[in-house]
Amino acid sequence: MRHGRAKASRRTLQFYRLNAPHLKSPYKILLDGTFLVASIRNKVPLWDRFSKTLQHEQFVCYVTRSTLNELELLSQQTAKSKQAGDSEESFFDQARQYGLDECEIIENCNEVANTNEKLMNKRAFRDFSEASRDIFCLATDGGNNRLAYFVATQDDGLSDALRTMPYVPLFRLGRAVLLLESPSSASRQFTGSLEQNKLKSAGGLMTSEERKIVDKVNKRDKKKRREMMKEEQEKLQKRSRQEVGGCFNERKKKRAKGPNPLSCKSRKNKSS
Fold first, then answer.
1. What is the pTM of this model?
2. Is the dihedral of CA 153, 155, 160, 165 positive or negative?
3. Measured torsion, CA atoms of residues 22, 24, 30, 31, in degrees rounded to the nearest 10
């Protein structure tokens, strides 16, 4: 791994360790079908690359039953197609076999899907396949990835949807290079709002009644400061009138002493 990518991965993992304590070792990586097929096509040693990217921490790969069914269906459709070659069919078969051999299989996602039913209806992800829908539900359970999954996908639609949810780390392949994306703007905004709430509640030690008292005292102090500043300005203006004989910012107006002789017509002498 190049030094720049390793440094970026360390920063990303440190962000999640500090702000999302549930994302901890052993890490859970949820693979989808597009990622598995891309890794087989580009001959990427996933286990070695995941280990280096995660700083040699322990991890477990997971795959949903719907993803395996989807790969099997795609393999059968490719086998029936006359235009497709044998290599495409083998890619789907090898990806499915990797999921069966190297990954823990998540059989049932119905319970999680029921908890996220309102979210799915709100975002109207009707174009998602069953496998993508299951992955989205697992990665967004609780609103902040309560199940602590890293998601590895090449699906742009699924990636864009997951970037709108806080604390969902994403893996993707750039040809044969494994990349861990930096935290999304949704994760950073969610972290910022939590920090603001901590400041307002004194780290969670202040009750709501105490917070109201503090707000009342702060408002009263601000009002006193405004009144004091107003009194100081009035005193300063009064002192300037006494010393200078006018207002502090007042400027004397210049008055015309007479008409401009150059703009006046010369008088004509009347002949007697």
1. 0.69
2. negative
3. 150
